[in-house]
Design goal:
12 strands; single chain; 14 helices
Length: 354
């Protein structure tokens, strides 16, 4: 009989959760929470032999009541989780972000919620060694609770892996850069606009595509970018079947954030062979192959991003192909089933302690 692992919250727009559980069957079944409140798992008749709760995105699950007045907060959920454990259930918690995702800041409420979850969770899952150390340093997490399981690549998710790995490098009449995903403040995409303007004014032949949902705060930036003939902004969430086309047309991926904690888009880009250009911070180094670390620039270097974009423009096809192969190898080692097997081992250990 499979053990239900109730994922709270559950989202199907991003395949992350289905990837993480792709090799966990038949022992463990990913079960969507379907909006059930955490207090419902505290009832005495809940069967602990089928009971593991997997918490995600705590900043969205327990938002600050001062800004999200209509959303239940952590106070009522705390006792539900503790009673669930007293009944024999277990809790695993995945750390996705360092700060509250939408706001990019740490409120005291967020920190207090995270401190209490650190004590409650039976297992704390992190994606990088940087995140592991952060949880120890900032929240006094017990190292024995922590499990380092990397973010999986997306190889084989949007199209067959063989098709991705056999696709040739896109023609380089001009070098194409890509930034992908919702334009939130913590992604620091505003750094791209002046850099693209300078490269264009200096006669470099390139194309930058910025693809993803744009919130009201990013609309002015989108207009400024679109004014540059070397930049195109696709201001919407694209259908899954368009993802391979968008990534296969590009040559490198831009990730200018200086506060990256976990980057699924970095793994998505490398799944399609795109090397990452970004600040030289631990989360980036721990999410990219060593052969591509020379594309990471010093965080405070005022010309780091433009210099790296220029360097990639000047790479030969053979040099870019070497980095492309390194990305494919990295993505292959972190393919979803391989990473899911690591989660399965953590769940087996957790359930054996029920």
């Amino acid at each position: 009989m499979s053990i239900n692992v109730v994922n709270i919250p559950y989202g199907n727009k991003n395949p992350y959760q289905s990837m993480m559980y792709s090799a966990c069957m038949p022992e463990f079944r990913l079960t969507p929470s379907r909006g059930a409140p955490l207090t419902s798992f505290a009832r005495a008749d809940f069967h602990p032999d089928q009971g593991i709760i997997h918490l995600h995105w705590d900043d969205r699950l327990f938002p600050d009541p001062r800004t999200e007045e209509q959303t239940p907060v952590f106070d009522s959920a705390r006792e539900g989780l503790r009673q669930f454990q007293a009944n024999g259930g277990r809790v695993i918690w995945s750390i996705h972000n360092q700060f509250a995702h939408a706001r990019g800041i740490e409120t005291e409420y967020f920190r207090q919620t995270r401190r209490e979850l650190t004590q409650i969770a039976d297992v704390i899952h992190v994606h990088t060694s940087h995140a592991r150390q952060h949880m120890i340093d900032e929240y006094d997490a017990d190292p024995a609770k922590l499990r380092l399981i990397p973010h999986p690549s997306y190889l084989g998710v949007y199209e067959p892996a063989d098709q991705t790995l056999s696709r040739p490098l896109a023609p380089r009449a001009r070098t194409r850069f890509l930034a992908f995903g919702a334009m939130r403040g913590n992604r620091e995409l505003e750094r791209l606009q002046p850099v693209a303007k300078k490269l264009a004014s200096r006669g470099y032949d390139f194309q930058l595509s910025v693809v993803g949902r744009i919130f009201r705060s990013g609309q002015r930036l989108a207009r400024q970018m679109n004014a540059n003939p070397h930049v195109s902004v696709v201001a919407k969430r694209v259908p899954d079947d368009e993802v391979p086309v968008i990534f296969s047309q590009a040559h490198a991926y831009l990730l200018p954030s200086t506060t990256t904690f976990t980057s699924g888009t970095a793994m998505l880009a490398q799944s399609f062979g795109l090397p990452i250009i970004g600040p030289d911070i631990d989360p980036h180094k721990q999410t990219t192959p060593e052969e591509c670390h020379d594309l990471l620039y010093p965080t405070q270097h005022p010309r780091g991003l433009i210099r790296m974009m220029r360097n990639v423009i000047q790479l030969s096809d053979d040099e870019l192909e070497e980095k492309r192969r390194a990305c494919f190898e990295f993505a292959s080692k972190r393919n979803p089933k391989c990473i899911s097997n690591e989660l399965k081992l953590a769940l087996q250990e957790l359930h054996s302690n029920c």
